[in-house]
Amino acid sequence: MRAWIKNRNILIGLSITLALIFIAAFAPQVAPHDPTEIDSKVRLQPPSKEYPFGTDHMGRCILSRIVFGSRISLLVGVAVISGSLLIGIVLGTISGYFGGLADDLIMRLVDGFLAIPSMFLALALAGTLGPGTFNLMMALIAVEWTSYARVVRGSILTVKEQEFVEAARGLGASDLYILVHHIMPNILSPIIVIATLGIGYAILAAAGLSFLGFGVQPPTPEWGSMLDDGRLFMRKAPYIMIFPGLAIMITVLAFNFLGDGLRDELDPRFRKEIPH
Amino acid sequence: MIQLEISDLRVLFPTDDGLVKATNGVDLQIEESENLGLIGESGSGKTVLGMAILRLLPKDVRVTGEVRFNGQDLLTLREEEMRRVRGKEIVMILQNPSSALNPAFTIGNQIEEVLRIHEGLDARSARERVVELLKRVKITDASRRAKDYPHQYSGGMKERAMIAMALASDPALIIADEPTKGLDVTVKREILNMLKEVTERKSMLFITHDLAAAAEICGRIAVMYAGELLEIAKTEELLNDPLHPYTKGFLGALPSRGLTPIRGTCPSLIGLPAGCKFHPRCNDAMEICRMEHPPMVKRDDGRQVRCFLYA
Amino acid sequence: MLGYIFKRALLIIPALFFVSMISFSMAYLAPGDPAEILLMSPEGSPSPEAIDAFRVRMGLDQPIYVQYLRWLEKVLHGDLGYSYMSERPVADAITNSFKATLKLSLVSMIVSIVLSIPLGILAAIKHNTIIDDLCRLGALIGVSIPNFWQAFLLILLFSVHLDWLPVAGYGGGDLEHMILPAITLGTSSAAVTTRLMRSSLLEALSQDYIITARAKGLPERIVIGKHALKNALIPVVTMLGLNLGFLLNGAVVTEWVFGWPGIGDLVVDSIYQRDFTMIQGSILFIAVIFVTLNLLVDISYTYLNPRIRYESVD
């Protein structure tokens, strides 16, 4: 555990993530203004003391919108991953545990979903289901669940080979027991890594879809859609799009640092081999 | 004439778990044209010793002491000078030819390299020489085989290819690390015979855990344990009249002599026992063995042993 | 070898079935009457009579699986339908736009390779030094940066401020219009490949055959440049195929931002216009391309790795 704190990636990733959570949680206190307050008198102001990140085309404070936007992004990220985990674990368990036709069917389904490049699939789903945060999350869950299903299934298959024989020796231990006591510890590590990196990816994808207009709808402050707003004012007021993009990058970076660091710690480590 | 003289060689590996003393003050000499066997269990430090001679260990490993080859201390050479020694004057045949050979290049190509770098041969002459070398190590259909990849060779053939590679620039000293490990009995015999033949006018350091194999082709044997040499003697003397309790135990563990294992296990190279490194497993251990570290004693008959029984 | 290819190819078919089902269902997922949706054209909503006639003609009154099978049959004959919204056959629109995407992808790949291979090698050789850290940081930023933001930053710098390059558009597919989108896509892809090159080379350098190479007295540049690199490049080269897939994903937003009329742009536009025939067709098309790409990656990996190649023959 102590080694984890020494890992620079985890340190950087965790501190930024915690800072983000803090900002999101205390958004009303952190933000200098109301993110939805429209004031046409102060449209398109460059960064100043009053408005540290400037104002957008409706006179709203960009910094405040970014602060509140963190809530949306983090929420969407966590929700998408949670949903994907749920579906992935359920289907992966069924697939790995029961095997046979169920396994084949589910794996072909996974292949089917994986056959479509993720952005296209998410876009098509979000587009067809209609705008809105909920549909956005559904679309992204449809893209993400496959990774978890595979990991869980793989773990179950490995354990099935090892432990199942012993269990069958009539200790009376139910398969459910094996599932919980042996499979769980096995899948925890890879899932933690995938989930962390997944949150980063979900936030990025959600921003992209919102940027295109398919996700979170105005006036809810979302970093991706703020970037879309900034498009038209690129010449006059580039800060409208610079800051939200920066926010997205830093957030995703944080999760990537964290995920990388966790992967370093949790993966079977490269032991320095002393020749003998 | 002493070809290789190792004095007080210490090799320290920095690891996350602490400093590992892979070798702890080794003194060893190899004469010209002599085959010296280096016997030890896994973890005794014998491979590290071999690699330390050619300075093949990673950069962060600390090596102190002297390794004099034909009078010159290899440890003080600059890297480019060392490169001229490696593969030309001294060669090392690494353990496990399956991983020691590059899977992406043909056997012929890998042997050619040595010839082109050290002998300055052009492509065609190098290729011809390669075929000669492969024939020398008794690989049939050599010219075709030279174009094969390592995975197309059997275990024994790979070992022979490694030997051919070692002989390419006619070195004076060959360090062979476990050349017969994992091979079956007939192949083992062939490899041993081959090694004996090719080292007729060369010296060899034969590193192995297989005492019987070493005894066949080595004139002298050194026994290594936990990073130190415990006994050095001529082969017949060692086999018929072992001095060190570890050597006796080692012999007793041979199939031909009863298969009696030595009780206990090899110590971890990090937390070595105080005093004599072998004393926890020694039936003849005395009080002093626990407290003091026995020095290597050179007897009048030329034999060397590190044990308070003979101090 | 051929047998191996055949076996792998067979495995795709069930997946493609599911893909076709997913694509087909797009029109039915949307809120609203499918018939009305499919008939929608720039002139506006179709009349109730037209909807009824269309429904009968297309068999939309049939159960879903029948409709699916009829659609599938047409697809297998190369008929991806007709888009009333954009007034052209779907297949034509798709092939034209895919050509544009292909062009862009090729240039992006070049950018990616030119950046990532040297950087990855550098990072591996200077393992655990500042240079290594910088390369890894750069790669991490590359995967974290939203590509639409990066696109805008590039446009801001090169088009708006410096006025060196056009802001957007196809311009007949010339280099001028391709540079910025290619850099955007190429750098994202490079971020992934750099890390792979680095870890692959580090892995190769830790192998025993590297010690053998040094033991032979070979100069370090041959040890790394020949012995390590040849083995290290194998996974990287095969991954280049997967990189193409990664580029496809990035293309969606990037093409749209730059107005590059590729297939990503097509899909986005189709969704804006609720052109479901087009959406169905393009999703299916892109999936087939993607799957074929992955299959090629698999095969090339087997082919390039001499050990596996021979094993798969036995």
Could you name the key traits of this structure?
heterotrimer, A: 276 residues, mainly alpha, 10 helices, 74% helix, elongated, B: 311 residues, alpha/beta, eight-stranded mixed sheet, four-stranded antiparallel sheet, 12 strands, globular
Which SSEs are present, and which pair or pack?
The complex is a heterotrimer of chains A (276), B (311) and C (314).
Chain A: H1 2-6, H2 8-25, H3 27-30, H4 62-98, H5 100-115, H6 118-129, H7 133-168, H8 175-212, H9 223-231, H10 239-266
Helix pairs in contact in A: 2-4, 2-10, 4-5, 4-7, 4-8, 4-10, 5-7, 6-7, 7-8, 8-9, 8-10, 9-10
Chain B: E1 2-15, E2 18-31, E3 35-39, H1 46-53, E4 62-69, E5 72-73, H2 79-85, E6 90-93, H3 97-100, H4 107-119, H5 123-136, H6 142-145, H7 155-167, E7 173-177, H8 185-198, E8 203-208, H9 211-217, E9 220-225, E10 228-234, H10 235-240, H11 245-252, H12 287-291, E11 297-298, E12 304-305
Parallel strand pairs in B: 3-8, 3-9, 6-7, 7-8
Antiparallel strand pairs in B: 1-2, 1-4, 4-5, 9-10, 10-12, 11-12
Chain C: H1 2-29, H2 34-39, H3 48-57, H4 64-76, E1 82-83, E2 88-89, H5 90-125, H6 130-144, H7 147-161, H8 175-205, H9 208-215, H10 220-258, H11 263-272, H12 276-304, H13 306-313
Antiparallel strand pairs in C: 1-2
What does this entry look like structurally?
- The complex is a heterotrimer of chains A (276), B (311) and C (314).
- Chain A is mainly alpha-helical.
- Chain A has ten helices and no strands.
- Chain A starts with a helix and ends in a 10-residue tail after the last helix.
- The model of chain A has no long low-confidence stretch (mean pLDDT 84).
- Chain B has 311 residues and is α/β, with parallel strands linked by helices.
- Chain B has twelve helices and twelve strands.
- In chain B, the strands form two sheets. Chain B has an eight-stranded mixed β-sheet, with helices on both faces.
- In chain B, α4 crosses α5 and α4 runs parallel beside α7.
- The longest helix of chain B has 14 residues.
- Chain C is mainly alpha-helical and 314 residues long.
- A two-stranded antiparallel ribbon of chain C has the order 1-2.
- The longest helix of chain C is centred in the C-terminal third of the chain and has 39 residues.
- Chain C starts with a helix and ends with a helix.
- The relative contact order of chain C is 0.14.
- Classes of the chains: A mainly alpha (276), B alpha/beta (311), C mainly alpha (314).
- At the A-C interface, α5, α6, α8, α9 and α10 of A face α1, α6, α7, α10 and α11 of C.
